[in-house]
Amino acid sequence: MKPIKLRDAHEQFKSFLKENKHSNSTVVAYGKDIDQLISFLEELKKNHVHEVTQNDIEAFLAKLSGKGYTPKSISRKINSTRTFYRFLKVNEYITDDPSLLVAHPTYQLAAPRILNPTEYRALRDAARNDLRMYAIIELLLQTGIRIGELANLRLSNIQKDSLYIAPFEKHEERNVPLNKRAKEALNNYLKIRPQSKDDHVFITKSGKPFLIRNIRTAVERYFRLAEIKDAKVNDLRHTFVAHHLKHGVSLVVLSKVLGHKRLSTTERYIQYVPERGKETNILTEL
To answer: What is the DSSP letter of 49?
Structure first.
């Protein structure tokens, strides 16, 4: 075991995440979670990694609960903490992992927000004069890709009838079909896309990558303009899933398109789709 201060270990951990090509949003989120943990541990006069116990971590989580953090938020912080301690153990800074037996709080998964046809048509209409945002909304809605995957798209990933989705964080590579609506929206955007040395598909006016947080903010602005309440970017993915389950697309096909590692992840949507059509492998437009 090699002694190291918590703050020094934290810096090494962030460097490790960057070197392993985790997204900037993941590095920032993990960084904030671990910084919050370390600040609490420092209040307990614990400055070295080997001094921390399971009770210390549980006391930190109890404090968060007392401050009104949701079980889901606390569960995410446990995941961040475990990732941090796996890093410490692999690098021989600790022999025992104090986070290993920390229990996740129980919570019910909220029902996904599924846009009805009137809503997603209104969203489409609201963005119609902004070719970049129109293409982004259509791609999210017509392909079901994640916002991080969309932000990471390169020009070379655009194929004739599909998008190549490169490995992203823990998600494996895959090809996602492009339907007529998605292709038209994408092609119209590419005609007016600023010239840039950067090969990201979606870029700013200055030619820099359009960042995830800015894409999210922009899409949410169009939700407001379309007067769609309580909707978030990921709800376009939920809507894609529900639409295709309703039209009978097989779980196996849908799971592959979505990049789900487990079929059960796709299956959980069935409860929100009361009637399913005859089974098919053909995806349809929204």
So the answer is: G
The domains located in the chain, with CATH, are: 6-90 (1.10.150.130), 117-272 (1.10.443.10)
Q: Are 113 and 105 in contact (CB under 8 A)?
A: no
Confidence (pLDDT) at 167: 85
pLDDT at site 26: 85
Q: Would you say 55 and 42 are in contact if contact means Cβ atoms under 8 Å apart?
A: no
Q: What is the pLDDT of residue 170?
A: 76
Segments in the chain below pLDDT 70: none
pLDDT at 84: 96
| Cβ atoms < 10 Å from Cβ of 247 | 17
Separation in Å, CA 57 to CA 2, 45, 66, 69, 81:
21, 14, 14, 15, 9
Q: Specify burial of residue 110 (Cβ count, 10 A radius: 0-12, 13-18, 19+).
A: exposed
Tell me the pairing of strands 174-177 and 162-165: antiparallel
How confident is the prediction for the chain on average, in pLDDT? 94
- Can you state the angle between helices 131-143 and 234-246, rounded to 10 degrees? 50
**Residue whose tokens read 């962030």:** 14
- pTM for this model (two decimals): 0.72
Q: What is residue 235's predicted lDDT score, i.e. its pLDDT?
A: 97
Residues 6+ apart with CB under 8 A from 161: 177, 178, 183
Distance CA 273, CA 156 (A): 36
How confident is the model at residue 132, as a pLDDT?
Answer: 98
Give the end-to-end CA distance of the chain in Å, rounded to a whole number: 56
Question: Alpha-carbon distance 239 to 122, whole Å?
Answer: 14
d(CA 274, CA 264): 18
Residue 9: predicted pLDDT: 95
Do residues 99 and 78 lie in contact, with contact meaning Cβ atoms separated by under 8 Å? yes
The pLDDT of residue 274 is: 84
